[in-house]
Each structure stands twice: as C-alpha cells, then as structure tokens.
Amino acid sequence: MSAGLNLLLVASAALFAVGVLGVVTRRSAVVMLLGTQFMFIAGALVFVAFARFGLGAARANAGATMALFIGAVSVAELAVGLAMAALIYREHRSFALDADRG
Amino acid sequence: MPLIGALPQPITSAPLVFFVYLVLILLIGSALASVLLRNTLYGIGAFAASMVLVALLYLAIAPFLLVAVQLLVFTTVSAALLIGLLRATIGLTASSVGRLSPEWVIGAAVSAVMFALLAVVLGATAWPVRACCALPLSLGSTLINDYPVAFAVLALILGSASIGTGLLIAAPTLRSPRGGGSTTARGARR
C-alpha cells in the first residue's frame, strides 16, 4: 500500500467534483463561493502532487509556489464574492441568487 | 541519457500512508458536508475544517512554508471573511449554552489546542524574511526571486480585490422593485 501521484490526482478530482456539485446544485451564493474555493484547492493540490511525485520533482518548490499563488487568488476571489453576496442579501434578505424570480 | 529521469517514489511508510489516506477521506467528507449542509454556519465550519485538512495534507507532501501559509493565512482569512459576512447579514445569535458547562469547556479546550497549534506553526516556520541570519530560504527565495512578475501581479490582484470589496460594501443598494427594500440604501442609484 502506498500513497503516490495517482491517489492525489483522484482525490483532487473528487474535490473538484464536490466544488462543481456545490456550484451547480445549490442556490445560495455563499455555498457557491465555497464550491469555487474547493475547485481552487483541487487545482493547487494537483500542482503540489506533480511537484512531489511527478516530473515537477526536479524543481519541487515550483509546485508549492503555484499553490501559494492559487491560494492567494482564491482568497481575493472569496473577498469580492462575499461582498457581492452581502449586496444580494441587502436587496433580497436572502443569499439565494434567484431570489428575485418570486 | 534518458529524456525523462526516474520519478520520485510514492510514500510507502505505513504510518504516513495511513495519515494521507485518513486526511484525504476526512477532506472529501468535510468538503461534501460544507456543500450539502443547509445551515450556513455549519457549512462554514466544515469549510474551515477542510482548509485545515488541506494544510495537514501539505504537511506530508509539500514544503513546510506552504503548510504554514495554508494554515495561518488562507484558513484564518477565509474563515474571518465568512464569519464577517454572517455577522453583517444574518447575524450570529448568542449561544444558549451556559458558561462552564461541558460544551463550553470542550469548545474552549478545542480552541486552546488550535491556538497552540497555530503558535507552534508560526514559531517553527522559516518565513521568507531574513529575521535571522541562518534561516533556510528555499521556498521563499523561489517565490520572490524566480517569480517576480507573478509576485507583482499577485500583489496587484490582492490590492484590486481589497479595493473592490471595500467599494462593494460601501455602495448604496438599489431599492428592490418587489418591495424588499434595503437596509442601508440612501436612495436609488442614478
């Protein structure tokens, strides 16, 4: 039994699928943002996995650097998205994105 | 000479393999809980747990600086943003659990353990600044010296995001055509 590139790629795909599930099936803006965060994390995990177990191991720090960049961008996206969610809540007293459809 | 050299070997140490599998299973479970739970506060808690689990996974496969940044920066900032949103909108109701009750003691103990963990990580991390003369700077120097353009673009993105967030929060909202109204509107936008 071992833990290598395949395991981490499968886990990353599962995490991305969970994020897509949140974005597609839920109406709440907050949950949708959390779903996008999971998709970002899945991408960062792939970079780290290839840097540790794949061809990227020649420059192992590059994968971690990419993960840092992805994390910072995801936090920026979360900040702007939450501000928009707050505006939606002010208008409709709900986080639902289709609240104005009645 | 082969074009592609030998790939690094997968982790075969039994305790480490068990740790990676356990963290991955918990990570997928908490991510699913975060997406599927109806209570937004519980969903945010599950999301914070997912971020901590990602940091634990990085502990096994990535440089320690990434673990520290994931745990100290990304997790805390994300959780603070989400809790701030809830405070500004739905509001966080006061707990009905009395102080010194078992639930309160357990919660305080978990918080103390998390705080101690954060303090240990904060102290054990070789941050990419030369606070001391002999700190290893591998990942930090890679970040700053090999990717200066990406670093500058990232600073630009973060600055733009902070400005945009402030403008969105401060902006007056339109009056709802369905009569919902807004809590902070100062008249309709022209």
Mean pLDDT of chain B: 75
Binned strand content of chain B = under 5%
* Helix/strand class of chain B: mainly alpha
Structural category of chain A is mainly alpha
Question: Strand-and-helix sequence of chain B, N→C?
Answer: HHHHHH
Percent helix of chain B, as a range, is 55-70%
Order of helices and strands of chain A: HHH
Main beta sheet of chain B: none
Beta-strand fraction estimate of chain A: under 5%
Number of strands of chain A: 0
**How far is the first residue's CA from the last residue's CA of chain A?**
54 Å
Helix content percent band of chain A: over 70%
Q: What oligomeric state best describes the polypeptide chains here?
A: heterodimer
The largest sheet of chain A, given as strand count, sense and whether it forms a barrel, is: none
What would you call the shape of chain A?
Answer: elongated
For the CA atoms, what is the radius of gyration of chain A? 17 Å
How big is the Rg of chain B?
22 Å
The N- to C-terminal Cα distance of chain B equals 70 Å
User: Could you list the spans of chain A in which at least 5 consecutive residues all have pLDDT below 50?
Assistant: none
